[in-house]
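[stage:ingest] chain + small molecule (zinc ion)
[stage:ingest] validated
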Amino acid sequence: MALPLETPPARVEENHPVYTFLLHVAVWMTWPLMALAVAFGAAGLSASGWLAMLPLLLLLGLLTSDFVSGLFHWFFDNYGSPQTPVFGPTIELFRVHHDLPEDICNSNLVFTVGHVCIWVVPLALLQMGLWYLLGRSFVVSALLIYAASASLFLVLTNLFHKWAHLPVKPGWITWLQTQRLILESAHHTVHHTPPYQSYYCITTGWLNPLLFRVGFFPALERLLARWGMDKAV
Ligand SMILES: [Zn+2]
Ligand SMILES: [Zn+2]
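[stage:predict] done
[stage:export] tokens:
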């Protein structure tokens, strides 16, 4: 949905020094915490003789991130308004992104990933505490690794999305994109073609062709319409 804006909005909270400080703390805590969660989970898997499950759990986390990124993106693109309580500023950023797609390239690391890190850090601490208290069994360890992988890739999603819009980028990013290991620029262009109604997944974009073919998001929209939730126009 196009908005008559010339300049992108800043989130209100980005001007708040306490929130900005928490964003920085969350961003720098995220990487060691995710590494610790995977290491703890791997130790639990190893003790149960299931360490070989590790790559599969990491992959499942990546796929989950791609799906969840699409779900959030679809919802914020199509429902609510910039005046919606709590999520209004996020909704506005998503919609303005269609009008000013390259503006995302001006965000630094903290403002690119911090808004996700601030949720991921306390959740990861909670999950690691539960893993410790619940006996570090195979199931609990597998869940810890899966959740850590999904969380880490959700954090990285905003970075991958930003990289897909970079007009000039380092060779290693181009390589990751051409191998389709992360969101590729030409693939993401499909979403940026009006009316912006498909290819919402922005971690790797792997799920986009499948979700498009089965009509996943239009089906979800019909379901919500039946429950009285209409799309923003
Ligand atoms: Zn969009
Ligand atoms: Zn984009």
